[in-house]
Amino acid sequence: MRTPTTGPKRRRWPTVLLAVVAIVSTGGLALLVAAGGPGVGHFRTPEDRRAYEDAYAEALGRLPEPTATHDVETSFGTVRAYAWVHAEHPDATPVVLLPGRSAAAPMWGDNLPDLVEHRTVYAFDTLGDTGLSEQAVPLRDMGDSARWVDEAMAGLDLDRVHLVGHSQGGGLAAAVAVRHPDRLASLTLLEPVMTLGMMPLSVILTTIPVSLPFFPDSWRESALNRIGGVSDDEVDPDDPLARMIAVGSKSYSSSALPSPSVLSDADLRGLAMPVYVAIASDSSLAGGEAAAEQAKLIPDAQVKIWPDTTHSLPMQVAPALDAELETFWSAQD
To answer: Is residue 8 part of a domain?
Structure first.
């Protein structure tokens, strides 16, 4: 392992992996243009599953201890959901968190300590992706993906929630808002990929070679770092979350997971709930300034480009973002 004695401090949050795993880990360009066809996400071998579960447990250990762990049955499989129940604020509308690709519930480790101070929070592992949810039936499109989220919330007796999604989870949250809006007190989109616009062409072109199985790991990591807007020495590969994502992206087949669809102008104008949109100023995979402008079509939208951030915005500015979101949610309670 490299241990540089000079240069930038190595970051605890795995910027690069969270920034680009949504497009590289399971097929690069193919993931951008189409899902892999009907199928069920799965670990490639029993050994892969055990290795992932060990890495997952270590990453989960960074989070506040959940009040409860739920395995919720839906039409498409069993959804793993963690709850942090805030008994002192029973009237505060709960938050439901949807993670980015391959990140699962542990990705919220930097945000949860703040969020759980004010209200009950639930974090889902995405069905058909890495994590401890168990897919049983293929997801044909984003309509099916939105349905399992709605069914999971119903199974937890969540009638009104603040729904939050990062990256691909943002695209999923948007799909829920379009198709199943009745449960949503608000919608929060953090760097939502392929939702307010397509990814930059430079990112797409870079992912083509690094997605090939024979591409050397060192070259792949450097290419991903460039996309993430950081140098090689700024990312700590031994961070538990980074390790979990790396193990999962190699050991789990999720090529059939539907990719988000860019919302039409009519879809955006039809969102009746309050919406908060956070876009990164640098290396945005959501579409940058163009995405921020598109989000302004939403009737009741707060749109912010966060300075000095990349696609890993939720953990880069966790305290400031968490405080701003709590203010936004409180206004809807």
So the answer is: no
